[in-house]
Amino acid sequence: MKKYSQYILVIFLSTFLMLAGCDEENYELGKLKTPSNVSLTYEIVGVDDANPFGDGSGMVNFVASADDEINFTYAFGDGTDKKVSADGIISHPFAKNGVNTYTVTVIAVGSGGLSSTKSVEVEVFSSFSDPEAEAFLTGGSSKTWYWAADQPGHTGLGPNFEDAGKAYAAWYSAAPFEKECMYDAEFVFTQTADGVTFEQIAGSAYIPGTYAGKIGVEGDLCYGEDVATTLYGVKNVSFAPANSIATVDGGYRGTSFSLTDGGFMCWYVGSSTYEIIQVTDNILTVRVEEDGTFAWYHTFTSVKPSESKEVDVEYTNLIWSDEFDVAGAPDATNWTYDLGAGGWGNGEAQTYTSDAANVSVSDGTLKITAKADGGSYSSARLKTQGLREFTYGRVDVKAKLPVGGGTWPAIWMLGADFPTAGWPACGEIDIMEAIGNNPGHIQSALHTPSSSGATVNMESTTVEDASEAFHVYSINWSEGEISFLIDDEVYYTYSPAEKTAATWPFDADQFLILNVAMGGTLGGVIDPAFVEASMEIDYVRVYQ
């Protein structure tokens, strides 16, 4: 049973036991009553003499009341989902641009499901738009999105009420490729002359256990149109301000989008409205509510993930290596240095030197040593720039990592055109990065024009003895993909469906970099007791 099912089961059992403890003899079914005296009033946000239909946000505040009601259900007449309100108070943004009239109906629900309704005509002005979000979603014309299945937490569950977890997946987070049946889904957003459209063109509907019982099917399975009848077909997309407490407290984008005709993005919970948490060229993270009780968090990518655990090309011809078997300074025909301080774009604390105290070869290994000296730090950064550069192949680096809070050892590569193209246009391949404040955590990443900085193109794993034993950190770089390996086991593969300058600047020479940084955006807080620590390199080998 999934974690979220366990959570819900606990709530159910707790409620059952409470009821079971009541005095059954005192229980009496109340008289069924139809709600009466239903009223519905509204206030359009921003109405004044100059703006008789509102300030353009499209936001309207509604208040409903009735006698003998249990709760209220709103139907807004704009093609969006119905919403439930316990106290009759609710706000809703109307997204269609211009001045439009909507018939809004509130259903007062009483005991036994008896109900009464009240409708009002609302004339409201909306000028809301988010052209940047539209451009990201559609690529300016048409763009296909996929589940970010290789990312932890690509789907997750949290509460949808006043709670510390109301703005993130506090209850459940899916592991990579956990939901096997749904990853063939493809979603297309298209920019047209009349706006944006959406269509799921492949795959099925995944129905989680929280919702399956409400439609009479088994949960945590994939279904087709026979169950999810609105799965396929072109839907229109409307954008509106996002105003939930999660958007406010979570610092989301502030934009939501709704799909007409019951459209949804594979995950079927009876909702067609998505709050945008983040959207970029190749990442879309959203929040979608289920029956006002649960909130689902989904992450999609424009680069289809691969679960391949094998490299596509085997490289066996050794073209260059450094075995570090000559004591003293590193071989100057292989290595040069980056020197100096200044943070290196990441707020790092060290100054890089070529001093023997920071970099030397002895006992068959290269040692890059970070040192503390009265509140400052020194280290070394070696590179093969201008000396050893190559396109495609396999790189093996056998290394033992330093110990100490704040250390940030890295084995990585940059495009040889870095001086002219700049970063990230040159492309960056992070073969291995480690975090001294999180011992054993190893991560690999790629930085491209489409995803740089806090890139989504990354994966992490754990190597428990990374600072006690040598391990081989590798990439296998071909024309089709870049695979990352540890001790010859593939654990992450990058292979964008469309290889453009934005997603694949990896068709030209790159050079190698070895360094130990201190602090900075990844190294974090430096341990006040830190004295020194070394990354040891047994060998570097390149095959083609």
CATH level 1 name of the largest domain: Mainly Beta
Would you tell me which CATH topology of the largest domain applies? Jelly Rolls
- Indicate how many domains the architecture comprises: 3
Strand content range: 35-45%
Based on the coordinates given, report the CATH architecture of the largest domain: Sandwich
Shape label: elongated
Number of strands: 37
| Largest sheet data | 10 strands, mixed
What low-confidence regions span 5 or more consecutive residues with pLDDT below 50? 1-29
Radius of gyration: 29 Å
End-to-end distance = 47 Å
The count of helical stretches stands at: 6
Helix residue percentage = under 10%
Q: Which class best fits the helix and strand makeup?
A: mainly beta
Overall average pLDDT: 90
